[in-house]
Amino acid sequence: MNVTIDEIILLAGGTFLIVWGIGKIVERNKLVKTGIKVKGIVLRFERRSDASLSSYYHPVIKYVTVGDNEEITKAYAIGSNPPMYDEGETLKIIYDKTDKRHFIIDGTANKITGPLLLLIGVGLIIAVAVYYMLHQY
User: Fold this and answer.
1) Could you state, in order of their start, the residue ranges of all structural domains in the chain?
2) Who's near 100: CB < 8 A, 6+ residues apart?
3) Which tens digits make up the pLDDT trace of 118-136?
4) Residues 12-45 pLDDT 10s
5) What is the number of helices (H) and of strands (E) in the chain?
């Protein structure tokens, strides 16, 4: 048995993606079941850079809560490059009724993020297992 550091790192990465994907699926399902759906508007974008100096544009969304009519303005946690939305675009928002500032955009991208992360993680682990089995001798 000769497992390389690369294989261990890839297995750990695959496991991380699986856990992250499951977390996203659980978060979305919880908000869809118990959250409150409203319309939000994209006001502008916040440009953020990661460790590799890649830039991502996070939409700043404004929405009004049901009941107390509180106006919430917050940058969405997920960004993209190029931006997935346009300034002024109206979106479906689902916010947590216990934490009104916690929300998701109810769209196709949010629906597939969790399952996609899960699928990539499983694929990565399977690929490493197959590579290991084929190259162990």
Assistant:
1) 5-134
2) 65, 70, 72
3) 999 999 999 999 988 888 7
4) 999 999 999 999 999 999 999 999 999 999 999 9
5) 2, 5
